[in-house]
Recover the amino acids of this structure.
């Protein structure tokens, strides 16, 4: 039997927000340090909240949507915010 590893974006594992692709819906699972947690909390990004990746600017910020707000998060901060892909009810049926 041959074992084939899924790419990280298809695995149900924690990964940095900076690795997300536009359209990904993710849940924040961990904020790496008190400083990052403080910054993220001011933006309304706390563990357990769900955001949708809107854009990833090359060598720039990651743009996410939470509710009706779009937030641009610097790449270095996004690398310190761990997320897990959230599957919608429709995806679960496919």
């Amino acid at each position: 039997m041959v074992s084939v590893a899924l790419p990280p974006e298809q695995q149900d594992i924690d990964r940095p927000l900076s690795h997300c692709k536009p359209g990904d819906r993710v849940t924040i699972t961990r904020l790496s340090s008190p400083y990052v947690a403080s910054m993220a909390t001011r933006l309304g990004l706390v563990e357990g909240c769900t955001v949708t990746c809107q854009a990833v600017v090359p060598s720039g910020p990651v743009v996410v949507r939470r509710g009706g707000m779009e937030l641009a998060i610097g790449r270095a901060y996004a690398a310190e915010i761990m997320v897990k892909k959230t599957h919608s009810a429709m995806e679960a049926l496919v």
User: Anything to note?
Assistant: The longest strand covers residues 25-31. The chain has one domain: 17-93. The chain is about 20% helix and 35% strand.
